[in-house]
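As described in the Methods, two query proteins were run sequentially through the folding procedure within a single session, without resetting any intermediate state between them. The first query and its resulting structure tokens are shown here.
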Amino acid sequence: MIHVLLDRGEDNYGREPLVTITSPACHRERGRSEELKPQTSEEVKTLLKLVGPVMVTTFFEFLPGFVSIVLAGNMDSPHAPQYVNAATFSKMLLTLMSTAVGLGLASALDTLCSQAYGAKRLDKIGEYVQTGVIVLSVNLLLVFATSWYAEEIMGQDADVARLSASFSRWMLPGIPFLYAYELTRKALQAQNILTPLVIIAVIGNAVNIGADYGFQLVDLALELQGLSVAANIRVGNCLGAGLPKTARLARTIALRVTFGLAATFAVLLYSFSGEIPRLFLSAGESADLASKVMAIWSPLTVVVGLNCVSQGIFRGAGKQKSAAITNAVAYYAMGIPVGAYLAFQCDLGVEGLWFGAGIGDALAVGTLVLLMKYCWTWEKLADQAKERANL
């Protein structure tokens, strides 16, 4: 803060300054000092209020693909295993070429929109959504090309590849609407507007009402994804509003709640590891193998959940690049090599592959937590969020 005395030449000792100039840095420091100490109980309530609608929305977003595989596995046909493989491969291709790329591009809105809302710059949210429409429209060209030529890309058994290609082509008309929904969802979630998303997701799944296969257990897994989105929204809103202490508390609570829920889910998953695979497949070797894999994987769901929520926190803080690099290194430098060694050298098969993936998750979580603890300055993150929102 700079004080200026205008009447030069006189003794100014002890006199009050006539003009006071306050630097931006002083404004920021004063804003931080005015931030009240966040209350843990209130922050838990806020986070859980966000989790519920997000969890329900995510559940219904997950439902169509889940139902497709379940119905394929329970068809009264000798070709049911091929139908399951085709539906699974098609969904995998859609995830790689459409969901991962397109929605990965859209994830920039997780940071930008949540921080803009916290900074009360609602006009910026509209600009970000318009930019997202342009970017995802260009990406549609790649999605349509890969889905149309899926049979050649698959490189699997001829019958499975043919069925997968047909499945993928029939899904093409829905991709533009998926992108439009995703952009709308991110803009609304950033503003804590969640109820319309639940209604839309329920209506979109009305045709699946007859396929009630006990989704309550799956819903438990989606709580982790709901927590990830809730952490993203809360951290981004707080940083955009210049509340670094509250953002840090939201981070801590999100991780602790996730640990408790993931541990509970791990116990349930292990307890029902023999029954869940039979929702997808009739009794047989495939179902037995899936049961073994699920029993091995269930304890690792804790690190999977923590990784999922950590990703949401990093998106809220605008640190997607760090999270992406961390996960890529953890999986490609550790998870995949270890999984391949266990599967092929130690003859553990698919169980070894999944165990390697779990090790990659554990390494990623450990690194992300250390980055948050030792490399983040929350006050600096709040400054960056305000600057980003005011560009």
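Immediately afterward, the second query was submitted; its sequence and tokens are:
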Amino acid sequence: MSATCAGGVSEPRRPAWRKVSRVSAEALHGDLGRFFLSEVLQLLQLARATGRLELERDGERAEVLIERGRPVFARATGSRVRTGDVLVHRGAISEATLEAALERQRAGPEKRLGALLVAAGAAQADQVRAAVHDAMRRTVYGLMLWREGSFRFVPGGAPEREDIRLDLDLDRLILEGLRQADEARTRLSSDPPL
């Protein structure tokens, strides 16, 4: 099949799938009510896209950094899963140690909580790394529950270099996120009304 250009020259027509398999320089954007985050992540994986996926709903904001189609970092405002809480839950640090580190973080120049805890000898680097990884993974799972809001993918060079990066298989990430979403829906439907 061919299409005719303005100059009358015939050009081969590209298959439609080729047009959507690459993310263009324009931002990809849409409504999370129409496209679930898992679908957006799969599209970005197929396109081997690199950039920043921004999500927003009711004043909450999140971003997932994507490198060659794989999520490598995630953060969200108001996230219920924070690194310090994971460390306390695992018994790596006490609540008092967390509060003291958060106070130092607020008082000083921008320093990461994990770096402060390691520098103070309150936690080991591998404990912090595991907690950050767990918090990011849970953040992505939580974002997969969003059924309203908007998303926008901003393509670009390699995402900012983070000390700790997600290294998850996207298919496993999506399956686990969907499993957790089902469990959350089951809990909500079985809870008695207030």
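The two ends are 63 Å apart (CA to CA). We note this only descriptively and draw no conclusion about the first query from it.
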